[in-house]
Amino acid sequence: MKILPDYEHMEYRDVYTCLLHRYRHILGLWQPDIGPYGGLLNVVVDGFFIIGWMYLPPHDPHVDDPMRFKPLFRIHLMERKSATVECMYGHRGPHNGHIQIMKKDEFSTKCNQTDHHRMSGGRQEEFRTWLREEWGRTLEDIFHEHMQELILMKFIYTSQYDNCLTYRRIYLPPSHPDDLIRPGLFKGTYGSHGLEIVMLSFHGKHARGTKITGDPNIPAGQQTVEIDLRYRIQLPDVESLRDFSELSRIVLEVGEQVRQEQQQEGGPEDSEGEPRPGPVQPHAEPPAEQGREPGDGEALAAAEQPVQSGQGQPFVLPVGVSSRNEDYPRTCRMWGLRRGLLELLAWGLHPSASRCTATELRGGQLLWHRPHRRPWLYQP
């Protein structure tokens, strides 16, 4: 059996049987069970090591910046026929850890020397170090009292785990040539909660955003948005984008049509969240309505004109809506309807606005509005 270079008495067979084969089931993408916060772990083979990298979004609000990452554990052969698990959490170097594989899609990690996670300055130093790593700033830089409370709550909650976590496998959604944009993982701005990771997937005539990382308002693993792809909104002119009242009126008219058509099809969505099959086709003409004032249907008819493939639409922020990230695209591929019922609890929106607001899809990015707030921007 061939001896590995730079590893005395280490054979290829030992590396395969004691390292690669034994821990093959933990390779890939995982989500840690950290209450509402979640996370994204990528376990990879790196030389003669298996390393678990925790992927972190860039610091808010720089959604276009690359992801950050830090090692949480590593596995390697210290001696023949014996693999060693080391915890990498903290700032005092590798120390003794343990990994238990419960089943194919679940495993857990445990640190056997949690004293290595402590810092000489106590919890205050640990918090300030965590704050610089997590947010790229100090507590003095954060003036919003509510944001300070959210940050402190997250630190207290997440630090109690001491890298003793259970992970569940993440399966990326399949892609199709007809998809508006490639599904997968996106970075998104979530206001006081900072940047979070969302998985975009397509389900028939609907697109869904599921949180990989989360917050107490919408926890990790929960659906944060659903987009109805059957109804594409073609706004009459750019001024409709600038006037939030006009924009809301157009979108709510289309939303009312959707509600009426769902009633005609036999009721709302089924228990699985998918619409029941029906005769509704994309870009269908609005049904005739009694009592409509002259001119009321003009905006609605224009709003439902089909969007030609590759045809860009202007994207302008409405008056009163601002964005901390000024480097956002000024065109989009599609305006559509989004549903986010939990937003009502999180942001206190008007029920109509929370059920049906404007969504834009463009190449490689996903963005939508919330009334009187800055837009959410998602970057893959």
TrEMBL record:
Pfam families: Cyclin_D1_bind. Keywords: Ubl conjugation pathway. Residues 258-321 are annotated as: Disordered. It comes from the Eukaryota. One of its GO terms (cellular component) is SCF ubiquitin ligase complex. InterPro entries: FBXO31/39. Coiled coil: none annotated. Pathway: Protein modification; protein ubiquitination. The keyword Acetylation does not apply. One of its GO terms (biological process) is SCF-dependent proteasomal ubiquitin-dependent protein catabolic process. This is F-box only protein 31 isoform X3. The lineage of its organism: Eukaryota, Metazoa, Chordata, Craniata, Vertebrata.
